[in-house]
Amino acid sequence: MGRTDIYGNLKIEENNGVLIAKFKKSMKYGKLNNETLDIKEVENGMEVGGSLTEQQIIANGYKPVCEVEKSGDSTFCVYKEYDVCFVQIWKRDGEEVQEDEIWTSERETMPKFSDLERLKRDIAMVNENINSLCLSNNEALSVKEFYPVWNENSLSINKGDKYQHNGKLYEADQAHTSEANFLPDRMSSIWHVVVEDHDGTLEDPIPYNEELNPLWQGMILEEGKYYTQSGTVYKCTRDSGIKLTQNLADLVGHYVEQIK
Questions:
Q1: CB 244, CB 217: distance < 8 Å
Q2: What is the pLDDT of residues 146-203, one digit of tens each?
Q3: Beta bridge partners of 232
Q4: Are 129 and 148 in contact (CB under 8 A)?
Q5: Rg (the chain; Cα; Å)
Q6: Closest alpha carbon to 48 in 67, 26, 65, 30
Q7: Least buried of 63, 80, 113, 140, by fewest C-beta within 10 Å?
């Protein structure tokens, strides 16, 4: 008497004590390398983002990865290895993680050294590719530590790329090659500091050089928007067209009017 279990895209059939894994066109395969689960995704017989065929991946010792639906009260997952596949296991807060279950960042136990090595590789990959993501200012600032750190060693920088420098996140306003004279906090013609998004309304005015930094790069003011500095709110009365560095109090009657 055989049985059939369904795990996402994978169907496990038992026939006379023999387990057979059958899967659909889109599938994931995993292999333990130095106690780290390396997962490759396959679609229509080819590795996604790679050059291996599905047959080559299987020949290299990879087994199907079964991802199961998350239950409503689950908070994190681990993976467990079986003879024919790896199975995703969802767990609740406080539920014990077994020794033979593979570590993920969601579990509440510290990783092994091999896990730390994998995380280091993952972070390096994110550092290298994060500028390919179209993140909002708020999103970018929430993951600021994953952006590459600016240096003067001839980096090829594209317009819109973001880099960390002296604790802040900067966005390039034009493509260029980095050098010592193009410091993000000194070269306002090609860089601007990334700040939180604000609506520019009376209820949500845009902060304007709140640090009163004498080396501040300036900001372009837009007519009709509200700005705040040192606890005072101002309304812009005409577009500046260029970055202004003067304090808003000194721009009253020229570009702004004081509101409160």
A1: no
A2: 999 999 999 999 999 999 999 999 999 999 999 999 999 888 889 988 988 899 999 9
A3: 229
A4: no
A5: 27
A6: 26
A7: 113
